[in-house]
């Protein structure tokens, strides 16, 4: 199995590149591009659908033959809601940075008659999940109930310092609806301040997979199967961008039985 921790390569250009082939799975692709003002990144979706997420910065954007103008407004992922753009199958797209820009490119198999469209900040309001030291702030970008894509599910989460997240431990690695859905998943991690670190564990019930990772600013973790909780350390807030896809666009998870009592506490 490929390594589950993917470190960024360099500071500029395409710093992260995850493909189904490199991850050893079927559905999810994930790239991060860091551009200086005036630089351009472009692509073609082919038989995939793509969600562009403005992690930080602004850029002149075209996609599917349409000019979307300047998208993006926040300068860090900890400062407000994201701009995003869904790019349909068989489309070209291009973003020219008008400030320093960090752009995520989330991809998965396409299908259906979905249209290219901008996803404005606030389309899906932020909400709080959990309580006590298990609080996190969730902003859906492409949730399952918006009927906006064939495969992609995209969400970002901010976990305050010292808190746990994606917890109690849950998994979604069985195509067994209505009880559980099979979804591959990537986590793109950012820390505030950036010199911090957090932890993530990916493990299965039988411990045939059991990997604990210290994640730093800009790291990506792969979740091919199993449970995948995170924990921050004191003084450092954790942001992550999740991309999920599988044979059905449904997020139905199974909690680890030994930790379910926390949901009632």
Automatic annotation (TrEMBL):
GO molecular function: 5-deoxy-D-glucuronate isomerase activity; glucuronate isomerase activity
Keyword Isomerase: yes
Enzyme Commission number: 5.3.1.30
A Gene Ontology BP annotation from the UniProt entry: inositol catabolic process
One Pfam family per UniProt: KduI
Top-rank lineage group of the source organism: Bacteria
Keyword list, A-Z: Isomerase
Protein's recorded name: 5-deoxy-glucuronate isomerase
Protein's organism: Rhizobium setariae
Lineage of the organism: Bacteria, Pseudomonadati, Pseudomonadota, Alphaproteobacteria, Hyphomicrobiales
